[in-house]
UniProtKB/TrEMBL annotation:
Its EC number is 2.1.3.15. One of its GO terms (cellular component) is acetyl-CoA carboxylase complex. The lineage of its organism: unclassified sequences, metagenomes, ecological metagenomes. It holds the Pfam family ACCA. It comes from marine metagenome. Residues 1-150 form the CoA carboxyltransferase C-terminal domain. One of its GO terms (biological process) is fatty acid biosynthetic process. InterPro entries: Acetyl_CoA_COase_a_su (IPR001095), ClpP/crotonase-like_dom_sf (IPR029045), COA_CT_C (IPR011763). Pathway: Lipid metabolism; malonyl-CoA biosynthesis; malonyl-CoA from acetyl-CoA: step 1/1. This is acetyl-CoA carboxytransferase.
Amino acid sequence: LKIAEKFELPVVSLIDTPGANLSPEAEERGLGHAIASTLTLLSSLTVPTISTIIGEGGSSGALALGVTDRVIMLENAIYSAVSPEEAAELIYQDEQRAKEVAESLKLTATDCMELDIVDQVVPEPNQGAHRDHHEASRLLKRALLQNLADLQTISKRRRLRERTKKFRNMGEYSSRLKSTISREVNALRGTVLRKVNEFNND
């Protein structure tokens, strides 16, 4: 990353990991520090940066390389701060319930696009990228070149400012979600009041 910054080269990372090894031994060897250092350095680069989730983008291993100007994702890739197995273990103490938990994690490319976690979903060939590597790489190359061309037109300061803003805003409720929640709360309030009135009248 430092070499890319020094020679003004764009950074493109391809992410396919179930996540970092969270064992005490890995932490003793400095894993947490390495992840934090990578996050800090990547988020402060002034060169164009793009991360691409090409398979599984899991946990801190993926997040460490994902703090970039653009995050793109293959159509059949998944991206989550926690794997379905880990979530099932945390919630139910049963990894076998991973499938049950997976839907609520919103980890598909479509989910991530709707939640503004990724900037673009790259289509895959019929039956997936693993069936036609050549076509999958052609589609990905086109997306990468387009994003790099777009980023080159933006000044360094603006790029850095927009990157920072993007990740600071991540996780905030959208206005559409706020209005939906507000409607649901008002409907629930109306139902509760109606039931209370019915109960009092009986």
